[in-house]
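Issue 218. Parser rejects a valid record. Input:
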Amino acid sequence: MINSLQDTVTLHNGVRMPRMGLGVFQVEEGDILIEAVKAAINNGYRSVDTASFYQNEKGVGQAIKESGIPREEIFVTTKVWNDEQGYESTLQAFESSLDKLELDYLDLYLIHWPVTGIYKETWKAMEKLYTDGKVRAIGVCNFHVHHLQELLSDCQVRPMINQVEFHPHLTQLELRDFCAKGNIQLEAWSPLKSGGLLNEAAIKEIAEKHQKSSAQVILRWDLQHNVITIPKSTKEHRIKENADIFDFSLTEEEMEKIDKLNLNDRCGPNPDTFV
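Output the parser choked on:
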């Protein structure tokens, strides 16, 4: 049973990661970003997900510092972007991200997209960062099954995380099964399909029954599928509302009803054609 915002999942290397965090995609550097991250931390969030591509690592680091919460209590994720990939350039990108965040180590470092012909070299750099103790866990984003199979064929360290687009219109069943069998934890980006699911009739009906919002029902559905989720918001009331999902549970029937909304429909790019 998932009982609180501080509940964690144990990754295959023993590191515990919060099941829910704050995403900061498309939030520009500045006061809005800093206040949003601080609001999340003040309201019990202990995980923040950024990326070099977002160009807001500096503000995320500043907010963590200003929050007053000890560094070791906050799980920080960032990612290496496509034009930074390759062995040496990934090592450099990592140090650049660390400098901007003003941190001594990262909790999770991810390959942002599977750049064809280069992501395996990138992974070797990730393995070095991990074995050198500079990051507590490493993983990937947007990897299909075939990308994972290729990576797993000769890697030294298996990915701990695969962060992908996941929501009721894109339930990723084959990928979820593959990751579950390989002990790779799935994490959802765009869990609300950029707001595109909030008026879905079946979800609204379930939300009314539980006296919750559609967003809260979807985020609860994520967690009950054992998928880590990182909804984005810059408004404190919404950040609090997104986290108010621990006083109800979806029934098996309700979970199945939401599962059936799958359309294999993306709001973001397909990894096979994006890079």
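Fixed in the parser; the record now loads. The chain has one domain: 8-274.
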